[in-house]
Amino acid sequence: xxxxxxxxxxxxxxxxxxxxxxxxxxxxxxxxxxxxxxxxxxxxxxxxxxxxxxxxxxxxxxxxxxxxxxxxxxxxxxxxxxxxxxxxxxxxxxxxxxxxxxxxxxxxxxxxxxxxxxxxxxxxxxxxxxxxxxxxxxxxxxxxxxxxxxxxxxxxxxxxxxxxxxxxxxxxxxxxxxxxxxxxxxxxxxxxxxxxxxxxxxxxxxxxxxxxxxxxxxxxxxxxxxxxxxxxxxxxxxxxxxxxxxxxxxxxxxxxxxxxxxxxxxxxxxxxxxxxxxxxxxxxxxxxxxxxxxxxxxxxxxxxxxxxxxxxxxxxxxxxxxxxxxxxxxxxxxxxxxxxxxxxxxxxxxxxxxxxxxxxxxxxxxxxxxxxxxxxxxxxxxxxxxxxxxxxxxxxxxxxxxxxxxxxxxxxxxxxxxxxxxxxxxxxxxxxxxxxxxxxxxxxxxxxxxxxxxxxxxxxxxxxxxxxxxxxxxxxxxxxxxxxxxxxxxxxxxxxxxxxxxxxxxxxxxx
Length: 511
Ligand code: AHR
Known about the structure:
Blueprint: E1 2-8, E2 13-16, E3 23-25, H1 52-61, E4 65-68, E5 92-94, E6 99-101, H2 107-117, E7 120-125, H3 132-143, H4 149-156, E8 167-170, H5 185-202, E9 207-210, H6 223-232, E10 238-245, H7 252-256, H8 258-279, E11 287-295, E12 316-317, H9 328-343, E13 348-353, E14 363-365, E15 371-373, H10 377-386, E16 390-392, E17 395-398, E18 400-403, E19 407-410, E20 412-419, E21 424-431, E22 438-444, E23 447-458, E24 479-481, E25 486-488, E26 491-496, E27 500-510
Parallel strand pairs: 1-22, 3-4, 3-13, 4-7, 6-12, 7-8, 8-9, 9-10, 10-11, 11-13
Antiparallel strand pairs: 1-17, 2-16, 5-6, 14-15, 16-20, 18-19, 20-21, 21-27, 22-26, 23-24, 23-27, 25-26
Helix pairs in contact: 3-4, 3-5, 5-6, 6-8, 8-9, 9-10
Pfam families: Alpha-L-AF_C, ASD1_dom
EC number: 3.2.1.55
Subunit structure: Homohexamer; trimer of dimers.
């Protein structure tokens, strides 16, 4: 049995929970768009071909912002191909994913979907094959009310009102040799600065994200961020981070400690951005946009790989790449990654789980068939629903575990929020232990606890094991009631089952 003691105090806060922390990502990749969110002719499709079942699940998730249209895809994309009469739109080769892009779905369809899903649009511009002029044109097309050739083109394409997209990504993973048109840090930094400057001439109040390193293991990590921010510091608002963890090598202890690495990654980028701030005598602060994060599937699953030599695959429309069944272990790791993001919500202001549907998806679909919730759906939905108000600085003393890749980790991983307006404290707790449950005691200092409003846990289902997953046929993994949560005055005690992630909300009044 592991043990942890947590103290929460409403005076010790990090700042408000950023609304955009619960973002996701829709890329023209695999079956995320086609037969994912969009499938004309599906029994659940609306008059625009948008799948209502997927829309409903997106709302249930509590997703707040969605990045679009890529990803690697955007670096070879002409946004103009995806607007105008659908029957006139060109079919193109998408080199990023060796796929045939029909362009039946484009900007207007995505904005319509986002509106129905009640999510904000986070639009990426192509800085791989294109640049300043394309970004300016897209911005004018999307956001200018009318009276110019581009804005009137939007209106003639059926959108009288501007889309008013506020949040823009300046390219995607521009340091990666796999990226169409990848660049050195100086080349990208200059281009991002020029693009940002031109976009701000159209609208000074946009929020702009510059590309950070594609991942922590890039050889130029740190140096890339420094150079890019030296070029762009006063012109952008955020620097991006991307990460995908997996237990591909079978080292599950390390996999379960992934969020320790995520904590360090975030803190490293904060330190780097702040160092550029200090050297440049800048008053403003650059925040972080963790605009791709997730786990990937275990090695033993037969998943069509994201990338493979182009010659081995034919040019197909929406090939089912990167689809698999997430299991209990992966859901617990996703829960700890959410905890890490929330713990750093003072600097991570945007986060996009990648991706929403099918490919590494929170949601899976069958073409012509059902849609269902993957295991990783549940921690996302639970935290997006309960994390309100202020982020609490939790003081945690936990038993520790060790892992080959990331060193020591708390067995019990914690994040917490305090919603003064509605009088509640929410705790998000993971037990990384594979075999032992964990006894947790929480002191709610300075608060008058009135009762446990809800306590739900995701863990190994009865009769299952840590590899249990949800499929089209059966969905045994989800949140169940966490029994045995005790509240005595300011003291909350509970036991987390082995390998679990829980969300517990307590009603409180100021003491
Ligand atoms: O999310 C899948 C891909 O992973 C994205 O297109 C790319 O940006 C990242 O490498």
